[in-house]
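quick one, 285 residues, struct below
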Amino acid sequence: MQTKDCKNSIVGLYFVLPAVIGILVFIVIPICCSFLLSFTDWDLLNNIKFVGMENYKAVLTEPIFSQILINTVVFAFSVTFFAVIVPFLIADIINTKIRGAEWFKTIYFIPFITPAVVVAIVWSWIFDPNIGGFNLLFKTHLMWLFDTRLAMPVLIFVSVWKLIGYNTVLYLTGFSSINREIYEASKIDGAGWWKNFWYINLPLLKSTTCFVTLVTLISSFQVFDLIYVMTSGGPHDSTNVIVYAIYKYAFEYFDIGKSCALAYILFGVILLFALIQKILIKEKY
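---
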């Protein structure tokens, strides 16, 4: 029996070996290498030189860093707020068994499966100051993506628009786990939509909301595609975020050490906010 179990274990290891190798080659090793490179000075051509914490000090003391960090936090929290509230409300409406609910689910999910670059190009045309649909429709002459006051709200809007479908599906999955008898009992008691929303949906979908919030927050901190295609961090760095700055350090300035250092600073920021969120949710519930 032991020999058979041993053979089964070996066979199982053979099955998981490709996945383990993939994780090691494409995740574990790059993480370790990038962490070590964050303590070096390297331009991809010359020899690697160890500089200790100099990259972290240089990145944190640069005048532009504070603006980049503020832009990233503002973008991430704004997107998370709207990309959680709006899908919750949409899922709640669809959950009431409205006519054409399946059609609405499909329509809302299409933006999420559309490549981010395609979404960015299309919305860049829509917000174009000369031929854009927004200016033509509302008869305005606003420089949407070229105005320091408007560029960030536009990016937030586009990002929320793209995420709504995915988060709506997550909430619909949460709604499907709620026992329908609870709604029937509340209906007998004369409870309306607001009481159902406040006393049934919010408490019972707490875990779903926590998951959606955390996933959306992390993905928003890592935004790159929309920034790269629509604004390139401009105008005047008003939409420059950490991931785009990592790209510029690596492939425009060829400063791999600072790029890796900034990547681990971003990791620290995301970890900090994730821990804060976990503590707040634990205290509240």
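The CA atoms of residues 22 and 28 lie 9 Å apart.
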